[in-house]
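Translate structure to sequence.
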């Protein structure tokens, strides 16, 4: 990953970086924060289908026909847009959302004894909506003809609190570990991280199987004066610190989810290693953690309700 002359190899900077970095920048909770923090654009026709992070309109009456609908961050405009979908309100009141590719796998029990108007087919593409409606009818369910409706007033407000769900998988772990290890390499130097004691974390980042979990989630923030629901800094935090004979890295993009990375299980002879920086992606500034100014955000800005689970 790092060459003897302190340069990053081409494969790491292109193939490996493209494979892992895109996950955090687009297909993650952090990617949603990134899209929300960047300026809106007109777009250039780029297409991207998320597989790990999902965005939903709250299942509330004020959102009318869109209540509980699944959205996606448009990679071109960096703003949420509606997906073409089927919504089913089952007999027990739970809401199920299906796209075209997964409706055929829907359990038959979901459609038993459905109340009136329990199924909605919504979307922006008329042809795709027609396809979805026919899929519903093929299950023997009667639907009204397609009609055009105005969006509810609630969805047109400048700010809406959406529901976020997601999945953190091995590729997400590897992307986070790559950040922590490259940060260590930058500060400790190539000769140091080329040591065999860093082979486990190097193997993990490059996709080789390791015997131990190399990354875990932490419920506590990186900054000492913050709490789980309160954040005093809205930017990226990267650090490493020795704990006994181990060396652990910590990464939090947009100071949201905190990850801990096992950079080295045994440093050998004990000596202190400690480094940390904060990166402001808007102002494009870098600050050492010891010099980070204290600022208290309001609860509305600081509280983030997460529904992410690791696998």
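Result:
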């Amino acid at each position: 990953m790092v060459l003897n002359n302190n340069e990053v190899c081409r494969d790491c900077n292109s193939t490996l970086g493209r494979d892992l970095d895109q996950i955090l920048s687009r297909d993650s909770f952090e990617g949603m924060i990134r899209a929300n923090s960047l300026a809106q654009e007109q777009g250039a026709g780029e297409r991207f289908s998320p597989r790990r992070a999902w965005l939903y309109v709250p299942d509330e009456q004020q959102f009318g026909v869109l209540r509980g609908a699944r959205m996606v961050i448009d990679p071109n405009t960096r703003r949420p847009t509606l997906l073409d979908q089927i919504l089913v309100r089952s007999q027990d009141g739970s809401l199920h959302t299906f796209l075209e590719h997964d409706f055929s796998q829907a359990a038959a029990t979901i459609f038993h004894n459905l109340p009136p108007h329990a199924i909605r087919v919504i979307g922006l593409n008329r042809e795709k909506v027609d396809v979805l409606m026919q899929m519903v009818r093929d299950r023997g369910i009667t639907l009204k003809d397609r009609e055009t409706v105005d969006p509810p007033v609630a969805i047109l407000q400048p700010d809406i609190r959406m529901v976020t769900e997601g999945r953190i998988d091995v590729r997400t772990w590897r992307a986070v570990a790559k950040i922590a290890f490259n940060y260590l390499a930058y500060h400790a130097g190539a000769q140091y991280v080329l040591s065999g004691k860093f082979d486990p974390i190097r193997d993990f980042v490059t996709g080789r199987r390791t015997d131990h979990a190399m990354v875990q989630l932490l419920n506590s923030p990186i900054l000492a004066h913050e709490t789980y629901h309160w954040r005093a800094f809205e930017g990226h935090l990267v650090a490493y610190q020795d704990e006994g004979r181990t060396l652990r890295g910590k990464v939090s993009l947009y100071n949201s989810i905190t990850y801990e990375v096992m950079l080295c299980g045994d440093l050998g002879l004990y000596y202190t290693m400690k480094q940390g920086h904060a990166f402001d992606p808007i102002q494009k500034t870098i600050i050492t953690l010891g010099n980070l100014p204290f600022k208290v955000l309001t609860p509305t800005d600081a509280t983030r309700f997460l529904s992410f689970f690791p696998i």
